[in-house]
Amino acid sequence: MTKICLVEDDPDLRENLAVVLGRADYDVRTASNGVHAIPMLLDWRPDMVVCDMLMPDGEGFEVLRSVQSTLPDTSFVMMSGAIGEVADVLEAARLLGADAILRKPFTPDELLETLARLRNQARTAVNVSAT
Fold it and tell me: Model pTM?
C-alpha cells in the first residue's frame, strides 16, 4: 500500500483529503504544518508527500527541502490556493523539485490522477533500474 503524508493547515480540507485518499486505498498520515510533518517524514518514510505551500509554522518549501535531502525517492506534490503574484510561487515549487503542483481548488479526481501518475512513474523508474 502506498504511504502518503498529507500536510495541510486547514483542518476541514485536511480531513476531507485524508478521507478521499483513504477510500482510494492509500495509507495516509496527516500533519497540520511543516514543523509537525518533518519528524513524521523521517520516522514513517512515506512514498509520497502532498503538501500545502503556505502554512504558519513550516511552509511547504521547508518540507520540500527536507524530503529532497532525506527521502530523495519520495514523490512530492505541492498545492496552493494562492492567487495573484503569490500564485507564481507555486510554479517555483516545480522548478525547485516538486514532482507535481495542484492549484486549489482541485477535484478529488485531479488529486487521485496526479498521484496515480506519480506512482506509475516511480514504478517505471524502479523497473528500468532493475534491468
Answer: 0.91
